[in-house]
Design goal:
The protein is mainly α and 312 residues long. The chain is built from 14 helices and four strands. The N and C termini lie far apart (47 Å).
């Protein structure tokens, strides 16, 4: 059986073999004002696509990013050339675009692209702007691959975002996760089981699992993607990635609640150990919410340090 090509690889080959030659014929003197790649929404941008993914918003295509002036001046002409490219390539395609998958490929304005995910054209300028952006939006704005960027504007903004959160913001988020993880997993899950409140227990397990994965991304200084891909993405992280991937899988597949309680506690202790490894806490408690205030105390921004520890 021939292994199916993943979307990002397909789109990059399509760009170099079909897209760039066609654009060179008409826009040779303007190519240095364009950036090309595949970044944004969709499993193919993360490399998580499979055979099931190919039924919608998947197939040969790529992004062409222009600044605002160029987009208004000759963007429609570039789109005309793009629209004339083959709809199928290497037995793949045509791309089936849904109403939710529009503007994922083709000619895009740099300002509009980043504003959609970051809230404005330029990267955040202070801690509070960083905190206001959902983490999965930052992951979406920085995933995929830039094939070529001669002007450097698109890649320049991308680099600032990829340099990750300011340390105070990372610490604030870690502190908040310490509180929510302990509350959901170490506290509410076992108490809900004892009370026979099984919906609450299920919700607490999901909340614990999600926030454990979020804190591991923070400990790795990487943005966590949309919930649909967070578990798959975590196993590639160097710090605790493989362990947490397997542990969360074991937790959700386990039927015995006592074993679940033990797994939750084991995972929590591993996180506490890593907090100490990164010199974020020296508390001797086995309860994660006892570590949150110590992490928050490390924040240099006084106003941010004094905000509600649960907010992050």
């Amino acid at each position: 059986m021939i292994k199916q090509m993943q979307g990002l690889q397909l789109c990059e080959l399509f760009f170099w073999e079909k897209g760039l030659p066609a654009l060179e014929k008409t826009f040779e003197n303007k190519l240095d004002r364009m950036a090309f790649g595949l970044v944004g929404e969709g499993s193919d941008c993360y490399g998580f696509d499979d055979d099931i993914s190919q039924d919608h918003d998947w197939g040969p295509g790529f992004c062409i990013w222009l600044n605002q002036h160029d987009y208004k001046t000759f963007g429609s002409e570039v789109q005309d050339v793009y629209d004339c490219l083959p709809s199928a390539y290497k037995t793949y395609g045509p791309r089936v675009t849904t109403q939710w998958g529009k503007k994922r490929v083709g000619v895009l304005e740099i300002q509009e692209f980043y504003s959609r995910f970051v809230g404005k054209y330029q990267p955040p300028s202070n801690n509070y702007e960083w905190l206001a952006i959902p983490e999965n939006y930052l992951a979406t704005a920085t995933n995929g691959k830039v094939f070529q960027d001669n002007l450097g504007v698109f890649a320049g903004i991308r680099k600032v975002l990829l340099d990750y959160y300011p340390e105070d913001v990372r610490l604030k988020k870690i502190a908040a996760r310490c509180m929510s993880i302990g509350q959901a997993g170490q506290y509410n899950f076992p108490r809900s089981i004892k009370r026979g409140e099984f919906y609450v227990a299920q919700h607490a397990q999901v909340k614990f699992s999600e926030d454990i994965m979020y804190i591991v991304f923070l400990l790795n200084r990487r943005y966590a993607p949309f919930y649909k891909w967070i578990h798959r993405a975590i196993k590639e992280l160097p710090v605790l990635g493989s362990y947490i991937y397997k542990s969360i899988l074991n937790l959700v597949q386990e039927y015995d609640n006592k074993t679940k309680v033990d797994l939750i506690e084991e995972i929590s202790q591993v996180i506490i150990k890593e907090l100490k490894n990164q010199e974020l806490s020296n508390h001797q408690s086995d309860y994660l919410p006892d570590h949150g205030p110590l992490v928050q105390h490390l924040i240099q921004d006084k106003k941010l340090r004094e905000t509600n520890i649960l907010v992050g």
